[in-house]
Amino acid sequence: MPQLNENFLKLEKNYLFINIAKKINAYIQESPDKKDSIIRMGIGDVTLPIAQVVVDAVKRGADEMGVKETFRGYEDSGSGYDFLKEAIAGYYHSFGADVRAEEIRISDGAKSDCGNIVDIFGPDNIVLITDPAYPVYVDSNLMSGRRVIYADCTKENGFCAVPDYNVKADLIYLCSPNNPTGAAFTTAQLKAWVDYAKSIGAIIIYDAAYEAFITEPDTPRSIFEIEGARSCAIEICSLSKTAGFTGMRCGYTVIPEELAVTASDGTNVSISALWNRRQGSKFNGVSYPVQCGAAAVFTPEGQQQIKVNLEYYKENARIIGAALDELGIYYTGGKNSPYIWLECPDNMKSWDFFDMLLTQAQVVGTPGAGFGKNGEGFFRLTSFGDRDKTIEAMDRIKKLLAK
Ligand SMILES: *Cc1c(COP(=O)(O)O)cnc(C)c1O
C-alpha cells in the first residue's frame, strides 16, 4: 500500500473562499430580494478583456501552428522562446533593472513557480514568510515538510515587514506590491531586506506579480533595481494581473547567473542550473501562441493598450481609497496595487465586518483573517470590479459607516 505524503494532512484547510460563498448563499436564502444588489469587491481576478494587440498576436501564433513550414512542436529548451525573453529583458532595462535574457525562464504563471521553486532546496531550510501572505508560499513549503516562521506585517510597520537580525532564515518570501495588503516596499525598505539576506546568507524569493500597478516614485518594480540583489534573490513575475493573463497562463522567473549556494560537499552550485534541471525534467514549456501574445504585451502598442485596463483598475482603487479617507478609516494599498487593506471599524473582527457589510450594504469583501493571524481585524477590497458598482459599493459603505 502506498504511503502518503502526510505533510498534506497537516495543512490547514483553506476555508476562506468556501466560507465566503456559503455566507453569501445563506444570506440570499434569507433575503432573496437582495440577491441582485450584491456587489462583489472580493475578487482577486481581473475582469477586463485582453488587449487587441495581444489577441492578434495569439491568433498569428495559432495560424503559424496550422502551416507545415511554421509549425512548432516541443520547444528546444522548454524555458521560453528567445523573442519573449528578449522582450522581457528589454522591459526590465526600461526601469533600470539589471536582468539578461538568458536569466529569464518563461512559465505558465507565478503560482507554479512560487510553489515549485521549493523543489531545489533541502527539507531542513528555515523559511521566513510574511504574515499576512499569499497562501501559496506557506502551503508549498508545508507540503514538502519545511519549517515556516513568520515576519509580522502590522499597522505599526505599515504592513511592510522589517528584517529582524535576531531571526535566522534560509529562504525568505517577499511580495511587493503585496497581496493581500496592497503595501509596496520603498527602495530603502527593500534594500534593508537585501542587506539582511546577504548578511545571513539567505535567498529571497521575490514575487513581483503586481509590479505593473506601481505609480509612486521610489518604489521598485523589481528586486533587481536594488544593489546587491543579484547575489541573493530570485524574482517571480506574471502577466496575469499586468495584462489580464489569468486565463491565458504566462509568467517568468529570473535567476541571476551568479546566484549560487555551497553544497554539503563544498562545491558551489548554481541555482539557475539547478532550477533548469528541475524544469527540464518536470515542465515542457508554455504554448507558442501564448508566448506570441505575451511578447506583444512588451511592444509599445502593447504597453499602451494594457495601460488602459491598469488605469481603469487604479481609478477604482482611488475611488475606494477616497471613500475610506472620508470615513477616516486606516488602510494600506490602492496606490501601487489593485488591493485595499482596511482596518475594520470599531475594533470589529474580520468576519464580523464581513457579515455586517454583506447584510447591511450587500457588499462582499475578503476577511483579512484568512491570510494570517495579523490579518485579524482587517479586510481586503479589490479594484478589479466594474466602475459603477465600485462607486455604488463605496456609497453604501459610506452611508453605513458614517458616524
Ligand atoms: C495573482 C497572483 C500571482 C499570479 O499567479 P499566476 O499563476 O501567474 O496567475 C502571483 N502572486 C500573487 C501574490 C498573486 O496574487
Properties at a glance:
single chain, 403 residues, alpha/beta, seven-stranded mixed sheet, four-stranded antiparallel sheet, 12 helices, 15 strands, 15% strand, globular, binds pyridoxal-5'-phosphate
List the helices and strands and how they pair.
Blueprint: H1 16-30, E1 39-40, H2 52-65, H3 82-94, E2 104-107, H4 110-116, E3 126-131, H5 135-143, E4 147-152, E5 171-175, H6 187-200, E6 203-207, E7 233-238, H7 240-243, E8 251-254, E9 260-262, E10 268-270, H8 271-282, H9 288-297, H10 300-327, E11 331-333, E12 339-343, H11 350-361, E13 363-364, E14 366-367, E15 378-382, H12 387-401
Parallel strand pairs: 1-13, 3-4, 3-5, 5-6, 6-7
Antiparallel strand pairs: 2-8, 7-8, 9-10, 11-12, 12-15, 14-15
Helix pairs in contact: 2-9, 3-9, 4-5, 10-12
Task: Flag low-confidence runs.
Answer: none
What sequence of helices (H) and strands (E) makes up the elements?
A: HEHHEHEHEEHEEHEEEHHHEEHEEEH
Shape: globular
**Main beta sheet, described?**
7 strands, mixed
Count of DSSP strands: 15
The amount of beta strand, in percent, is 15-25%
Ligands and ions found: pyridoxal-5'-phosphate
Number of helical elements = 12
